[in-house]
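Crash report, auto-generated. Payload:
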Amino acid sequence: MADNSSKEIIYGLYDDDEILLKAVKEAKKQHLDIYDVFTPFPVHGLDPVLGLEESRLHQAGFIYGALGTLTAFLGMTWIFTKDWPNIFGGKPYWSVPAFIPITFELTVLFAAIGMTVTFYIINGLGPGVVNKHLDDRITDDKFCIAFDKSQVSAAQAESFFRATGASEVNTKTI
Amino acid sequence: MSAVVSPIRKPLITGNKTYHQITEDLISPTEKTPTKEWVIGFIISVAVLTFGVFCILWTIWVGIGSWNLNRTINWSWDITNFVWWIGIGHAGTLISAILLLFRQKWRTGVNRAAEAMTIFAVMCASLFPLIHMGRIWLAMFILPYPNTRGPLWPNFNSPLLWDVFAISTYLTVSLLFWYTGLVPDFATIRDRAKGLRRRIYNTLSFGWTGSAKHWQRWESLSLVLAGLSTPLVLSVHTIVSFDFATSVIPGWHTTIFPPYFVAGAIFSGFAMVLTLMLITRKLLHLEDYITVEHVESMNKVILLTGTIVGVAYLTELFIAWYSGYVYEQFAFFNRALGPYWWSYFGMMFCNVISPQFFWKKSWRRNLTLTFFLSIVVNIGMWFERFVIIATTLARDYLPSSWSLYSPSWVEIGIFIGTMGLFFTCYLIFARVAPVVAVAEIKHILKTGGDQYVGENAVHSHHDTHEETHHDHH
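Recovered output after restart:
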């Protein structure tokens, strides 16, 4: 969501998630363009109010998982029928039931690693990443609505924050 | 959040906490200088770990001959310890994954520590097969990769290789799940810190900001990882049981092994979680977050799984008799009344009888009894694996090769050393990270806090609840 150019942000801090939810609804009613909302924990009911589409991360997970299934099954098939055909305990070379456990494990492994890595990349998170954040108390007990000053004027934002019960209003360049 | 909560629900967070108070209570243990108890515990753990490392090096230097294994009993303490540790790990995944899918809110009090426990237990477990290889420097031969040895591949039909995949997948997925949960909490620590500490925690928190979209994806990821971990955790101990069940040894060759092993794993894992959490909540003063309700819930799981394990033991005996197969019958006769009869009765008492105390509600809620029984259960589950492995091998088809076994000092040292590794890791974890998931506790405050639910709920809040409730419709 955030690009590299610096932005003038005006943000309000709320003391409670229920007040925040009402404020976000109000902002949507007034057609104010919200830059982002920051919370200390996932606030349920926020996504639909904010108009966030459902994450497609699980679809990516399905693809990674399918990739794992194919890697394991086709890999073992190739090894035991073409590269290194061996008879173990009088069983056929291509002994499918015995391939199931490893196929399952690699499906899970690929899906989990793939999804987690994707999660960090699309969020712009990772070891060593320094994201400028608005306020230290957002990871503690404050709920924050932020407006980009180029989209919403300072006066408009301030009157909105006052009307919706924000406990503090600040500006910051990030 | 403002969902309707049944009035008979007991609060999961006591002490009338605010969001800020939760942060203070859970983060501050990482910010203070270590307590005397911690330092003493740490010194003992590291000392024990050091001795364990010495014993492992001794094994590698001298060879497996330094253990008391013999041609008849070629698996004993090593594999017993391996299965025991792997089993202990299972509770963490059960709490974090299966209980998440079942929407059990009490999991939030204990999931972080239980997941950490899983990772450390799996680390301890995976040591044993590795050093049992004898030539540990050739351990990479178990991994399938194109090579100049032929090409020579591992046998994909072998349950031992399935184990390699199952355990490495389990360790990786548990680690990812645990760390992704920790990221927002590391950000909380970061935002309270200054200087170098702030930089370190910024690296650990991956630059987390708490943006709404990030939280949405975080929840989506957690849910799918939970969905993946649920069959995974069941598969891991199933595959461990295949190590025995796919063999042709009487007493091992039974189809009941997978469910029986999984139930036993959850049983021993919850016992270990209780042992650890009862100490942790006392030392870190977390009584408001890990309440007697949590302990009671876990004791119910112990009662259930302990009883399943008991049914499995009796089923095994019945099937051995009913099979009419004299070797199978002898295997079980030997387990109960052979030279290792004491381990069989130890197992029966610790695993089947001792959890039955928890039918009584006041005993389920008794912390001293719970602590004592949690240790008894872990001893019992160790006996179970010893019974299955060593006593079965001691009396095989050929009476001329019957044998007996007792561990050498090296084997005892390695086992105690893994305890040192486990507690060293756990103590470091309890210093650098919150042992209770901060963001997740805040998330359930309004449905689990004692000012919102239970007897002492403040009634004025009902009005606001009602109001927001209507708002949602």
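Post-recovery validation: Chain B touches chain A through 72 residues (CB under 8 Å).
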